[in-house]
Design goal:
Layout lengths: L1 H13 L4 E6 L6 E10 L6 E6 L4 E9 L8 E5 H6 L12 E6 L10 E10 L4 E3 L3 E6 L5 E6 L3 E6 L3 E5 L11 E6 L2 E7 L9 E3 L6 E3 L8
Parallel strand pairs: 1-10
Antiparallel strand pairs: 1-2, 2-7, 3-6, 4-7, 5-6, 8-9, 9-14, 10-13, 11-14, 12-13, 15-16
Length: 221
């Protein structure tokens, strides 16, 4: 339900375009869930090819047509197969991997088909734990990104300007989740809310535009 809310909010705020929502799981797992919304606009297109990043383990893949909610057929294909379908550049490696998604029907003239791709990644190079938090750093072609941090963590740095919102705070001062919405390539650092070394402040770094936030004050402090 929270994922649906985030997707609805992001689309209404930015308009219909490519959007990726990254839900980061526990840092020790190096795992994150991705919901990717995109438009297919090429007249006559019957399929969509989405690259699978080398070095990532992918599971729980599914796709839906956003207009109807119908599940879409999908499978993993090679770069050679994608090139044969004229769907990727000619210099694509034959052993590259793509997720092939069959649209409900070919795209009509002047029309578009909106689809959503869901998958879970394990990628230690992109998502790694640190002494008191974690780093999520991943080159992403999608220009609009929402990242949902695990419960108990706060954002302390972002390579791109970001809008940060937090979930509910319980009686102990724990925050259920933090969401960062940003544009451009994504790299962020976060730390546990209970890191005693964190300063009590929140500021925007004017020189680099990175967001840095200290540990939140507990009620009454």
């Amino acid at each position: 339900m929270r994922l649906l809310y985030l997707l609805a909010f992001a689309v209404s705020a930015f308009g219909a375009s490519d959007l990726a929502v990254y839900t980061l799981l526990a840092p020790s797992t190096h795992s994150f869930e991705v919901a990717y919304d995109t438009s297919v606009t090429r007249t006559g297109a019957a399929y969509f090819f989405n690259p699978i990043r080398p070095g990532s383990a992918v599971s729980k893949e599914s796709a839906i047509d956003l207009a109807s909610g119908h599940a879409l057929e999908l499978k993993t294909v090679s770069g050679g197969e994608a090139k044969a379908a004229n769907a990727v550049p000619a210099n694509t490696a034959d052993n590259a991997q793509f997720l092939w998604v069959k649209l409900l029907r070919p795209v009509g003239p002047g029309a578009e088909t909106r689809i959503r791709i869901l998958r879970t990644y394990v990628d230690a190079a992109s998502y790694r734990a640190t002494e008191n938090g974690f780093v999520f750093e991943r080159p992403i072609a999608v220009t609009r990104i929402v990242a949902v941090l695990p419960a108990g963590y706060e954002l302390i740095a972002s390579r791109s300007p970001a809008i940060v919102s937090t979930g509910a705070v319980d009686a102990s001062g724990s925050v259920s989740s933090t969401t960062a919405t940003t544009i451009c390539q994504y790299a962020s650092k976060a730390r546990s809310f209970h890191d005693s070394r964190a300063p009590h402040d929140s500021r925007i770094c004017g020189r680099c535009g990175a967001l840095r936030a200290g540990a939140p004050r507990r009620a009454g402090s």
